Amino acid sequence: MKVAGILGGLGPQSTALFYEEIIRLAQARKEVSYPRMIINSMSVWDFSSKMKDETQLIELMSKGIAMIEKQVDFLAMVCNTAHSIIQPLRAATRLPLLAIQEEVVAKIREDGLKKVGILGTQITTTSGMYQQELDKYGIAHEELPARMLEPFDDLIFNEMLHGNSYAMMHLKLKEYAQLLHRQGCEGIILGCTEFPLFLTQQHVEVPLYPSTQILAASVMKHCLEA
Asked: In order along the chain (226 residues), what is the average pLDDT of each group of 10 residues?
């Protein structure tokens, strides 16, 4: 079994959700086998102070990789925003580094969807990381205007990480998912690893593609490879 190296803590709640999904997947197997992994729980406050400066963000995440890469076989990051710099990070390590956008779009392709909506933070959405991956396969997409995404950063960093505003986040995500569905989207990408904490399939009719759980499934698959 391969050992996974996980860059987490960005934020802590989504990393916990990721690991809970790993446990669920392990217990669903005929022969229960929990994967080996090392989680580097990084400082979400260091991350938030550097996430708008690409050079500083690359330096921070590269240090996070360096702390664990000698002890693992492959890497994954439980944070969508960090994937806006996936290429320089891949170039900086000898190990395979999974890309959350590639895993999510692979699932969408598997399901045969022709048009999807993208729900993410302002940085993730404007980076084009999901749009570029969808464009590779001719999958149409819709995203919200930047002004509608602005509240998410505030809700995450100033409220959610302090244990507040869970209800407001749920209401916003449900409203926006329904809006994208009315615009013809056959599925909705939850392109922030915190979003599945607040919006699940029971809340909306349109199929959801929660990046946190999809990444967990991919990590589990890679761990089980010989």
From this structure: 97 97 96 94 96 96 98 98 97 97 98 98 95 98 93 87 84 96 98 96 97 98 90
**What residue ranges of the chain are covered by domains with CATH 3.40.50.1860?**
4-99+214-224, 101-211
Residue with tokens 């086998």: 33
Q: What does the block give as tokens for 135?
A: 């464009």
Cα separation, 43 vs 146, whole angstroms = 26
Identify the CATH class of 101-211.
alpha beta
Q: How many whole angstroms separate alpha carbon 88 and alpha carbon 206? A: 35
Instruction: For the beta carbon of residue 54, count every other beta carbon within 10 angstroms.
Output: 13
CATH topology of domain 4-99+214-224: Rossmann fold (3.40.50)
- Give the pLDDT of residue 165: 67
Alpha-carbon distance of 133 to 119, in angstroms, equals 15
Regarding beta strands 36-41 and 3-8, do their DSSP bridges make them parallel or antiparallel, or are they unpaired? parallel
By the 8 A CB rule, do 38 and 71 touch? yes
